[in-house]
Write a structure and sequence with these properties.
By secondary structure, this protein is α/β, with parallel strands linked by helices. The protein is 39% helix and 21% strand.
Length: 481
């Protein structure tokens, strides 16, 4: 504070800035609030204290019962994804997206993700970096029974927390393999060790339980690498644990719309132009090939919140309905097509050359596929496919691919049929003819351009073909189920 005629202004450290403001606003206080004997107008200390209590220190504000309390800062977390296959480009990372989309509505903030090799040195270095940025560290992969599954030991060395065999985990392993504990292989028995202190997360789809290393200032969680094990474990085990440990809020209301045939940016721009989102709606998106998922979330889950999301869905369907095939995360494009066929009591037959059976494999994996898939024929050449379908002569009209579709429908007594012709290259452009046989006997075909020969190119081809069937089953309609 400013001096007062040679004396220095007195104020306790607590709330001194507030007292200074009062002194500057009311000059007479500058005279009163001086140390006795040091200014021209010294004030006794007792009087000074009374003035300070009555003027400078206001009574505490009444408790706020309105519920408008400041939100606590979000729990910061980082992911460490292990696996040399990721670094070699064998397959893309999906764990970071899944974790961010699942944990963000709970109030957790992802501040980074790292990919490291399956080595203790690399994992330890990544953990050291993450520990400086996050309270929660989630490590994926490396909990299996092989020699390169080193995450368990790397975390033990980093945290200094011991691993001990847990009787419940051991009992579950014994039941799974139906052998006495003494006969379990050592590499499997190693998976029954859990941190002490700490806990574990049950694995309903595999042998490797999740590991939770609890320290004074942070938590490190290790999850198995396979998505079919990790994702249920996160939803069923990790989310409840985080609620207990960090007080995270329960998941709010959410809506997932699954699109096909449109790019992520096109969907995003259409929503911005026609369906403005409320400020409290959080969005996330995931895309793979020609399939895009958009998820819209609200912090709370009340009937009013669900009604708001349903209204939002109606607005988006109005502009993008023909490209929406599902309104939940569980229904795949193949599930949608099989459901449409089954609802009509109709079936589908397949005949494939250029797609190599990928179409049959995709549809066979759909829910209730046996109800709708009448049969499939796969061959490497037209001649072999003609032999499989019992075709004895060349088509008098139309193409060979159209003939295959007609023959596949007749052979399986199916209302619908799809035939994928051989790969053709013209002027450096690769394409395949795809023929669709309808229940009324009409056969129509179209050329599908094929960009590349790798797995993603084949996945795009299958998405295109399945979506074309979907659109023929329900032409011009909004398809969110």
């Amino acid at each position: 504070m400013e001096p007062n005629q040679g004396g220095r202004v007195w104020a306790p450290k607590r709330d001194s800035s507030r007292l200074g403001a009062l002194c500057r606003a009311h000059p007479f206080l500058r005279t009163l609030f001086t140390i006795p004997g040091e200014g021209a107008h010294g004030t006794p200390y007792a009087l000074l204290t009374l003035i300070l209590l009555s003027i400078a220190w206001s009574p505490p504000a009444a408790a706020d019962d309105s519920g408008n309390k400041p939100a606590s800062p979000p729990v910061r977390y980082m992911t460490v994804v292990t696996g040399d296959e990721l670094l070699a480009g064998v397959y893309p990372d999906g764990h970071t997206f899944f974790l961010a989309r699942t944990l963000r509505p709970l109030g957790l903030q992802c501040v980074g993700s790292m990919f490291v090799d399956d080595s203790q040195a690399d994992v330890k270095e990544a953990l050291g970096f993450a520990a400086g940025k996050a309270t929660l560290i989630i490590v994926t992969g490396g909990l299996g029974p092989t020699d390169n599954d080193i995450t368990r030991e790397a975390l033990r060395n980093f945290t200094g927390i011991e691993l001990r065999e847990h009787p419940d985990v051991l009992a579950a392993m014994v039941r799974r393999f139906n052998v006495p504990a003494a006969e379990l292989r050592s590499n499997l028995r190693r998976q029954t060790q859990v941190p002490v202190p700490g806990t574990y997360l049950k694995n309903s789809n595999g042998t490797a339980v999740g590991l939770v290393f609890e320290m004074q200032d942070r938590v490190i969680v290790a999850l198995p690498g396979p998505p079919r094990e990790l994702q249920p474990m996160v939803r069923d085990e990790l989310v409840p644990y985080l609620s207990r440990r960090f007080g995270t809020r329960p998941p709010g209301a959410s809506l997932t719309l699954r699109f096909v045939g449109l790019g992520q940016s096109q969907i995003d721009q259409t929503i911005k132009d026609h369906v403005p989102l409320p400020v409290d709606v959080m969005t996330s998106s995931q895309f793979e090939g020609s399939r895009v998922d958009f998820t819209f979330s609200l912090p709370n889950d009340t009937p009013e919140d669900r009604a708001r999301l349903n209204e939002l869905k109606g607005g988006i369907v109005k502009y993008l309905g023909e490209s929406i095939y599902a309104a939940d995360e569980a229904t795949s494009l193949e599930d949608c097509v099989v459901k449409l066929l089954a609802a009509r009591g109709q079936t589908l037959a397949l005949a494939e050359i250029g797609s190599g059976g990928a179409l049959a494999a995709a549809l066979t994996g759909a829910k209730d596929a046996p109800r709708a898939l009448a049969g499939a024929h796969v061959a490497s050449t037209q001649e072999r496919l003609q032999h499989l379908l019992g075709i004895r002569q060349q088509p008098s009209g139309g193409s060979s691919t159209q003939q295959f579709a007609q023959a596949a429908a007749e052979e399986a007594a199916s209302q619908w049929a799809i035939a994928v012709g051989d790969l053709r290259r013209t002027d450096g452009i690769s394409s395949m003819e795809v023929a669709f046989r309808r229940p009324d006997g009409r056969v129509e075909s179209r050329e599908v351009r094929v960009q590349g020969s790798d797995a993603p190119a084949r996945a795009r081809l299958i998405t295109d073909v399945v979506d074309q069937l979907r659109r023929r089953l329900v032409p011009g309609a909004a398809h969110a189920q």
